[in-house]
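Dissemination and training. As part of the outreach component of the grant, students in the summer workshop were shown how a complex can be specified as a set of sequence lines and then modelled as a single object. The example used during the hands-on session is reproduced here so that future cohorts can follow it. Participants entered these lines:
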Amino acid sequence: MTLSTFIQQLINGFSLGSLYALIAIGYTMVYGIIRLINFAHGDVMMMSTYFAFFGYIIFRIPWYISFPIAMILTAVLGILIDRGAYKPVRNAPRISALITAIGVSFFLENFGIVVFGGRPKGFRIPKLFGHIFEVKGVTVPALSLWIPFFTAIFLVLTFYIVYRTRRGMAMRAISRDMDTTRIMGVDVDGIISFTFALGSFLAAAGGIMWAMKYPQINPLMGIIPGLKAFVAAVFGGIGNVVGAAIGGILLGIIEIMFVAFFPQLAGYRDAVAFFLLIGVLIFKPTGIMGEVLPE
Amino acid sequence: MIDKKRIRNWILTAISLVLLFLLLGYLNKHASSYVIQILNVTAIYIILTTSYNLINGITGQFSLEPNAFVAIGAYTAALLTMTPQEKAMTFIIQPCISPLNHISIPFLPAILIGGVVTAILAFLMGIPVFRVRGDYLAIVTLGFGEIVRVFATNAIPITNGALGLKGLKQYTNIWWTWGTAVVVVFFIVGLVNSSYGRAMKAIREDEAAAQAMGINTFWHKMLAFVVAAFFEGVGGGLLAHLLTTIDPRLFTFFLTFNLLIMIVAGGLGSTTGAIIGAILFAWGSELLRWMEEPHVILGIHTPGIPGMRMVTFSILLILLMIFARNGIMGRKEFSWDGFLGFFSRRILRRA
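and obtained this result:
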């Protein structure tokens, strides 16, 4: 492998990893706060791509308006899912909440198949992101540089919210001890809904960029990225927002490098994340940045 | 007195089993092949729900493995029963690897080996997962389902890739499916009522307390998972030889989802409930067929107006969780005492 292809793959891996990072943050925040694996998170990401698809391609609204609208709609969807499905089972045994999450995930997928159709739809890339750069033999699609750029903006925004605002402080407090936080007068349900909104908003950012990177969308597209993003969240230390971002980026690089070094095994690419998960559970269940969570 | 009751219960159980098999024999001769097919599917569902309920309902460890384990059992058993000639004809892209290409063994050992292979994989998966506390079992088993699909599609010399395995002999009949179902149900009821079963329930109720009472939570969770895996693998072998054709698309998450609905509707944690859920689903989903024209049997799903039934099922599952968490049976089990008591009370009331 020449140096230039290596750099090219590194950039590809970094941009794929940025997308995992954006999706993983939603998982890790929700898990950190209410100890729920939100199986529907990947499907929420899928819905965001359809919102963007309708806005940008069907209604021909410019991307800088339709994409933010799609992200806000996705955030609203996140709140609706929390209020409609998860809040009623919050005080039920944990397994009920997990089953509900599976139900929501399956509902969104099949709702997508019924309403949008099961056949993949092409996603047109806005001109700004469509260029291909070539510097000293390294060819890089502009999108592979735009994705980390936007991801960085959203990550800074998220870290600011989680670590520097009162809302973020409330989120972190709930993840420590929900009941005590409630006694302190924090609107716990409101904060949980806000967490879902923020997580879904970030998943939408990841989803829309995903749709541009692999320019087609279908109702089942969220399953694999969702699973991998969860692995990234565990890798980074579940419940830790910074860890999820780092875990996502590392997972993207590992996956792309696996395919680059073993092209004959490219079909097994989706298995990389799974074996990484098993490895993390064996060697460091708390992940890279993980702290031991109170049970 | 207690002994008398126990003898009475054994006799009643034996009589009902004889009646069940007489009925099945009658249906096998006189019913249409459509009804017989649903009867077979019902029995396979019972095998799968009772074992799935063991890990999810009795031990309380949320797991999403059945589609993966059924696939492994199905592929293993199918590869073992196929004759070398059939394999040579089926594997057209790449020849089957040796020694698989010239092995051919009878049906019963094949499905048992299918179960054993599945159980071994479950054991290997259980080691990292049960060491950590938390919900990782769900995500690992869900991911494993994807891995099985990836391997079934890509490991062409073993699985024949996307083309799948075709032309299996239809060994599975109503006696195999229902016979296995009865064995599985008795085994699981026996296990649940043993000290192992009580330990599993203790883990479900409070893992920390169970551990404090000296229960080895790791091995009991592992036991439930491995037993469930074994029977799911056997169920997969039966399914493969019922359908005679298997391919990677057969074992999607849809199968797991359906089983989850069955055990939740029947009552999570009740073996009786799992059986009721399986029967209701097998026949009820036939009634819902009008929602989608194409055929849906045990997760095979040919497109038509797809999705409508699944949308209904997913809404049903969410509503069950919110409003009827206990399902039909709650955690209660069928017992002859309860059954007879119910009727004698009725008779008394009438008299």
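Chain B has a mean pLDDT of 89. Students were then asked to discuss how this feature might be tested experimentally.
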